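Take a look at this chain, tokens included, and explain the fold to me:
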Amino acid sequence: MSESTATKRVAFFDVDNTLLHGSSLYLLGRGMYRRGYFSKHDIVTFMLANLRFRLNGEAAVEIDKYQKAACEFIAGHSVKDLEGLAAEVYDEFVSPKLWQGAIEIANQHLIQGEEVWLVTATPLEMAQLIADRLGFTGALGTRAEAVNGAYTGKLIGNLLHGKEKAIAVRELATTDNIDLARSYAYSDSHHDLPLLEAVGNPRAINPDTFLQIRAIRDHWPIHEFRRARWLKNLSGSFLARLATILNAIGPRKRN
């Protein structure tokens, strides 16, 4: 679909640390552990892979390790059971950790007649449940293969991370009449720069340092909902000076 015929304006939201304080997959794993799905060793191994992924998400080796750990995490479990568990985990763990300020931004888009989609590395089942509970339009998430109602431990496609988010959003735009140049994207992480650069209105929520630098340099709006805001303010002048230097270099050219 050409840009001239695309009409929808959509707001895309990352989930972890953007809408939610923490990792949605971690919270799902916590709920599964409490219900006897895993041993303590299993959960520690997965959480270490999750932490390395959060810290070094651009490294291919860490993505592979995390993807392998995530697949092993749900392999053999019933799709129906996991969907039911996801609902319990949402009520017990996810709902209390939502950033209300971020939810209000998303709701404002809905009020304005714009769709709201989640775009996350979290399993699609969990992502879609969060979207449904919040009254959003839909979700794009990592798709796990299932055969005869049970997860095989393999993925359909790639982990929805980094550039894969931008690819998924562009595919959705092609099939769903979305004008990306007029759309919005929100994230906390510099790993999501491909997603943010895919739309005409990028926004930062609770940004990490690298994303905050980029947002300041390119005048992207920044929304801060963390309580430790004073700590960000202390470094604000330094980041502003650094952004000025980067601005003199010029924005990165897109391929």
